[in-house]
Amino acid sequence: MTTLHIHRSHVLGMERARELGQSWVAEAQAQWGLHCERQTSPEEDLIAFSRSGVSGTLRVTALEFELRAQLGFLMAAFAPAIETQITQNLDALLGQA
After folding, report:
1. Nearest of 58, 70, 68 to residue 94 by alpha carbon
2. Cβ atoms of 73 and 82 closer than 8 Å
């Protein structure tokens, strides 16, 4: 199993970070067919996502986004392209903020 770990710091605050997390969820569901479940607390949102061949979490806090994904055997062959796409999408969201 291949693991991806993407971390981005920010200074957006929790409210704006949550909004961007929700935008990421909408895009992940529409573009990649991911099933997402969100758990919230005052300190963070934890978004669990999955589909065939991939599962992971996106942790959203007032200071950072941290994505961890486990790729199954077939998806592991595409790990560099998947990591590039996720990184570009997350950076684009943060760039819009």
Report:
1. 58
2. no
What pLDDT tens digit does each residue of the chain (97 aa) get? 899 999 999 999 999 999 999 999 999 999 989 999 999 999 999 999 999 999 999 999 999 999 999 999 999 999 999 999 989 988 988 887 6
DSSP-derived secondary structure letter, 78: T
pTM here?
0.90
Who contacts 77 (Cβ-Cβ below 8 Å, separation ≥6)? none
Element housing 92 (H / E): helix 79-96
Contacts of 70 (CB under 8 A, 6+ apart): 1, 2, 3, 4, 54, 55, 56
- Three-state SS string across 27-74, please? HHHHHHCCEEEEEECCCEEEEEEEECCEEEEEEEECCEEEEEEEECHH
